[in-house]
Design a protein that fits this description.
This protein is mainly β and 451 residues long. It is 12% helix and 37% strand.
Length: 451
């Protein structure tokens, strides 16, 4: 079903925020990253970041808890949600010990760190219901797209007018139940691809013909996660046109033939010190030889699968609970891995099979969720998920630029690019209401650098 909706003029105009100018240093309010930076470094802090920032920012105003009892109540409440979802997001911890540690060390800084921000024009586009969740976005066919995790709808926004088109996604779920729209990416033919963690399905959407094809037959309970991407940020397709996905709760990669619908499983090494569902085989990229490189966020590993031999091997990161997340690969077959709990980027040479660089983010305490490579110039864009920002990193000059969003709690998980050199993302807190904004909707964001 397709329905065209026009954005309210007032809402669309409110979303147009001209922030052009020269770079300037600013000291704003205390943010989540400032709170984490004030905590002692070590395994407890890393576990807190990995376990407590998967859905939204942790810190102001959540961190106004002051006693061990308040913290213990909060942690046990979150553990209850985690058990209900059966996702094993929160690592095993001694709750009472962590609560006492937080009582001792948790303090809200009086203000945020002074940061040199780069100028940009930022425009926000409302789309979809407010009380929902929008994990990902993509730009294709002249539209910006988000999908409703709970409502099973796809929304396409016209960047010029703010007009929104709505499409019901034909998933195999009971009426009123979430399909769990998760990753949204595109193949070189311009088609959108979407994973659904709850429905255990994958959908292809033709943004020109406005038609869906839904693929079923993926393993139940595996929580299909992300598409493997190539260095140009397309969904990787092998010489036969097949695509690959990760599984959040199982240790295998899945290959899908879009033409026939055939699904194959490729096992990866068992990370034995954790229950399988707690390993979190997360994101994947393909190198120039068609090998699949993937991260294990809780397993703390980087792995590679050779589809030709079906053999896989894994490399353990040097420091426990670093939290490797949503990685990118460049044209030299180097992996760019965000270490969520370390506030840094790991550069891994897949040819030499070793780490060649560790790049610390310019804002302490931040937790980078994803890295996306701009195929036009090779620059890396990193989500500042704890700082309401995006980072732009030039690998040649080895320098950062920081672009700040106008909203508190602006938690982001991906970055996309259009043909006009605009950068796109969406506010992706779960629930969406954790982002402090004037819109009662989901929000897609367009950022145009002015430096």
């Amino acid at each position: 079903m397709r329905r065209r909706i026009f954005a309210a003029a007032a809402g669309f105009l409110l979303g147009a925020l001209a922030l052009a100018g020269t770079a300037c240093s600013k000291r704003g309010p205390a943010r989540s990253s400032d709170w984490f930076a004030s905590l002692p470094s070590g395994e407890i802090r890393r576990k807190l970041i990995i376990g407590c920032t998967s859905c939204h920012q942790l810190g102001p105003p959540v961190a106004y808890k002051s006693t061990a009892q308040e913290w213990e109540e909060t942690i046990r409440k979150m553990q209850g949600f985690d058990e209900k979802l059966d996702l094993a997001l929160i690592p095993e911890i001694d709750v009472a010990e962590v609560a006492r540690w937080l009582e001792k060390h948790s303090k809200i800084p009086p203000h945020g760190r002074t940061v040199r921000e780069s100028p940009a024009d930022i425009k926000e586009y409302p789309a979809g219901p407010w009380e929902s969740f929008y994990h990902d976005m993509e730009y294709a066919a002249g539209r910006a797209w988000i999908a409703d995790y709970f409502g099973n709808k796809l929304y396409g926004v016209d960047p010029e007018t703010g007009a929104v088109e709505e499409f019901a996604i034909p998933l195999n779920v009971p009426k009123g139940k979430p399909g769990g729209a998760h990753a949204i990416n595109k193949t070189r033919d311009g088609a959108l691809w979407i994973t659904f963690t709850k429905a255990e399905q994958v959908a292809r959407f033709d943004p020109v013909k406005k038609t869906f094809r839904v693929y079923s037959g993926f393993e139940k309970g595996a929580n299909i996660q992300y598409f493997a991407l190539d260095a140009e940020r397309w969904v990787y397709q092998d010489p036969k046109g097949r695509i690959w996905m990760t599984q959040f709760s199982k240790e295998f990669l899945t290959r899908l033939d879009p033409r026939t619908g055939r699904i194959e499983k490729f096992s990866t090494p068992r990370t034995g010190w954790l229950p399988e569902k707690a390993v979190h085989e997360y994101a994947a990229v393909a190198d120039s030889r068609g090998r699949l490189w993937y991260t294990e966020t809780h397993g703390n590993r980087v792995g590679v699968l050779d589809p030709a031999t079906r053999r896989a091997e894994e490399f353990e990161l040097s420091e426990a609970w670093s939290g490797p997340k949503r990685l990118a690969i460049d044209t030299a077959d180097r992996l760019w891995i965000p270490e969520l709990a370390q506030s840094r980027i790991l550069v891994f040479d897949t040819l030499a099979r070793k780490v060649v660089e560790r790049i610390t983010l310019p804002i302490k305490g931040d937790y980078p969720y994803a890295i996306r490579r701009n195929p036009k110039n090779g620059e890396m864009w990193i989500t500042g998920s704890g700082t309401d920002s995006l980072y732009r990193y030039d690998p040649r000059r080895k320098n950062f630029r920081i672009y700040r969003f106008p909203r508190r709690g602006a938690y982001t998980r991906t970055v996309a690019f259009d043909e006009k050199d605009n950068v796109w993302t969406c506010y992706a807190s779960y629930p969406n209401t954790h982002t402090q904004m004037p819109f009662r909707s989901g929000v897609i964001v367009r950022l145009t650098p002015r430096d």
